[in-house]
Each structure stands twice: as structure tokens, then as C-alpha cells.
Amino acid sequence: MGFSEAPEHQPILFGLFLSMYLVSILGNLLIILAVSSDSHLHTPMYFFLWSLSWADMGLISTTVPNLIVSIQIHSRVISHVGCLTQMSLFVTFGCMDDMLLTVVAYDRFVAICHPLNYHVIMNPRLCVTLLLVSFLLSFLETQLHLLVALQITNFKDVEIASFFCDPSQVLNLSCSDTFTKSIVQYFVTIVYGMFPISGILFSYYKIVSSILSMPSSSGRSKAFSTCGSHLSVVFLFWGTGIGVYIGSILSHSSGNSAVSSIMYSVVTPMLNPFIYSLRNRDIKSALRMFYNRII
Fold it and tell me: pLDDT for 149-160, tens place per residue?
């Protein structure tokens, strides 16, 4: 359904989303280049931030380019196969974001609460295993959404109350087997929403307790700065994502779903590089070295 049918709004929307997309891609590419080019950043935390940048680029690339093209050609029609493909890719990359945010919280918990054993616990094998588990869980969630979406028989001339094939809106098109749809939606909300956020909150409860017991005020401020950046992304991404998902379960009225979807599908991938890494001294140093090497 898009945002507005007024012709005078189309150039503004086109410029806005194109600039947000380019900023997001550039920011995340800079993080990937910085981490890849500097051996000092080959640590668990930056490995997960590197992976998060790839997931963010995939997440925003499944929605915004198609939106930009639809604004340019003045058509919001999408095929059945195209819609399911977009939904599947969005769920995969969105769940990767979900899982990686949880993994980053665990990494910070180990680094702050068990600093002497950090490199023993967060060894390369465990880091790769956590990344693979995140991908497998994302793939499982995609299959659950497709299980419901493929049961929809009447997929012609329907309207989706969002600017892309939002999973929460696509599943609402199912009228034949609402029981299966509700079970899948509640299962996804609990397993991929409540469990990870509970793990993050528990990790930060332990982290805050450890930080408050630190004798050094500079150490406390540095730890709080790192944790504050992560928590702001977590609540921005999960707060809007779970809100839209639960809202679609409780009500079919989706007037504000498109605006809410922008927050976790466009704004969060764009802000992640700035919140997480471009404010980071190590990342700035790595980017400076990379630039000098090119020059």
C-alpha cells in the first residue's frame, strides 16, 4: 500500500529512502572493511559486529530497493513469487539481526563479568558455532512463515498494509487455517522474541552488577557507554518489531504498521554503524589506516 498516493509526495519519498539506503550500505560497508583490514579487530566482539553489518545490509536491501523502484515506476504491484521471496529474505536477515543482538549481549556479559576467561570462553570455534546456530534458527523461522503463507489460496488483487511484504501482514491474508497461523505467530513471538530479550535482560542485570562493583570510574563509564549503545539498538529493533507482530495477532487494523515497520527494517540498519562502531575509537583508527593504505 505504500505511504502516500499524492504525486507531490513521491519525489520526497524517493529521495528520503534512497538517501537512507545509501547511508546504511556505506556505513555497514565501512564497518566490514575496517574489521576485515585490521588484524587488531579480529576479536569476538568485532566478528559479531562484522556479521551484524552483513545482516543489516541484507535486511534493508530486501525492502528499500523494491520500494524505490515502485515509486519511480508508479506501481506497487508485486507477484506472488516475488512477495514470498521478499518475505523469506526479510525474515532470514531480520532473525539474523535478532540472534546476533543476543549473541553480542552474551559476548559483553563474558567480557565484563569474566574478563580473565574471556578469550578461553569466546574461542573461535564457539564464535563460528554461534553464528551458524543464528543462521539455522533464522532459516527455521523462514520455513515456519512459508508454511502458513503457502496455504493462502486467494493471493490475487489483495492489499498488504505495509510498504513491503511484511510477514505480520502477509500471514493475516490467511483465512482458511487461522489456528495454524496463530500457533506459528505465537511460537515465533515467544521463541524468537521473548526468550532472546529475556537473555539480554539477564545478561545486562549481571553486567550492571559487575560494573557497579568496579573501583575505577573510567572503567565504569566505558562499560556503560558500550552497553548503552547495544541496549538502544535492542529496544529500537525489538520494541517496534514485536509491537508490529503482536499488533497483527490481536488486530487486523494496520494503519500504523508501515510507519512502525520502517523503524526496525530501515532505520535500525541505518543507525547500527553509527551507534555501534563509527563512535568506536578502534574502528576510527582502522578506517584511518585503511584510507592511508589506499592513498
Answer: 887 766 677 888
Decide: 105 and 230 in contact? Cβ < 8 Å.
yes
Alpha helix (H) residue ranges in the chain: 10-37, 44-61, 64-73, 80-113, 118-121, 124-149, 167-170, 178-189, 195-212, 217-250, 257-262, 268-272, 281-294
Give the C-alpha separation, 74 to 5, whole Å.
9
Q: What angle do CA 135, 149, 250 make, to 5 degrees?
A: 95
Dist. CA 129–CA 115, nearest whole Å:
21
For the stretch 270-281, pLDDT in tens is: 888 887 665 677
pTM: 0.85
Determine the distance from the C-alpha atom of residue 4 to the mean position of all C-alpha atoms in its chain, rounded to a whole number: 25
Compute the Cα dihedral for 251, 252, 258, 259 and give only its sign. negative
Grid-cell match 499488533, residue found: 247
Helix (H, G, I), strand (E, B) or coil at 171: helix
